[in-house]
Each structure stands twice: as C-alpha cells, then as structure tokens.
Specification:
Layout (H helix, E strand, L loop, with lengths): L8 H9 L6 E9 L18 H18 L3 E6 L15 E7 L2 H9 L1 H13 E9 L10
Antiparallel strand pairs: 1-3, 1-4, 2-3
Helix pairs in contact: 2-4
C-alpha cells in the first residue's frame, strides 16, 4: 500500500482552486501505524505510543480549533470490509467531517496551534485518504 499522509503540492493547489464559499465535507479514511513515528528529538519519540494513541493526541489538540471554526464530525463508522476496491486497503478510522466553508478548512490547516499539533497525525498515520466533497442537494433516493 502506498503511503499518503500529507497532500502533495499539486493536490493542495487543486483543493485551493475550488470554490471556498460553500460548505464542504471531508471523507477521511485513515490507517494507523502500529507504532507512532515521531521525528527524532520530539518529546514523544521514545514513548512507544501506538499510531492510534498519537492520532488521539492530534484530535485532542485540534478539537478547540475545529469547534471554533464551526466544523463537526457528521458521521463516524467502524471499517468492516471492502466490497468494491483494492483488497489491501483496510481503515482504522472512517469518518466524515463537515466544515461550514472551505475557508474554514484552510483557516484550520494554517492555524499555528494546528500546525504544531499535526506532528501527531504525521506520526500516527501509515496511509490515508482525504476526499473533499460538496454536500449534495436533492432527494435521499439513489440515482
């Protein structure tokens, strides 16, 4: 499985080029490392935290920022199996985060407190998918 932890420049530029003035929902698929991989010299580098524990640190340190921006978790689920898609992908965290606008998401990722806390996410994550979606309008029926 290829590791995807942070967006590359091309992906981030494509994200920024989209309309920022409407709500967005971010589908998060996250696979944790067995052991967190903090950078050498980080105060938690030698603590033996699991990826899941490091990700909890990320969540607790960013919770106030997310609340201040009016963002929330719309849905969280427990991965069971993939019916259609790569068989080698399994996810430890699956959730949809709602942001009132893409501006709010950008404010989050540029916040100095967030930028300090993101080291926990980077240490925790083996690979991930972060997919931006616009809330759909219309009926609840398929099609």
């Amino acid at each position: 499985m290829t590791a995807y932890v942070d967006p590359d420049r091309t992906q981030f530029e494509a994200f920024k080029a989209l309309d920022r003035d409407h709500p967005i929902e971010m589908l998060n698929l996250v696979k944790f490392r067995a052991q967190a991989a903090y950078p050498d010299g980080h105060e938690l580098a030698a603590t033996g935290l699991t990826g899941a524990q490091a990700y909890r640190n990320y969540g607790s340190e960013t919770a106030l920022i997310i609340a201040r921006l009016g963002a929330s978790i719309l849905w969280r689920g427990q991965f069971e199996t993939t019916l259609i898609g790569p068989e080698d992908e399994a996810w430890d965290a699956v959730f949809v985060a709602h942001y009132p606008t893409a501006h709010a998401f950008m404010e989050m990722v540029t916040d100095p407190v967030y930028q300090k806390a993101v080291v926990h996410r980077q240490a925790a994550v083996e690979t991930s998918r972060l997919i931006r979606c616009a809330p759909a309008q219309g009926s609840e029926a398929f099609g």
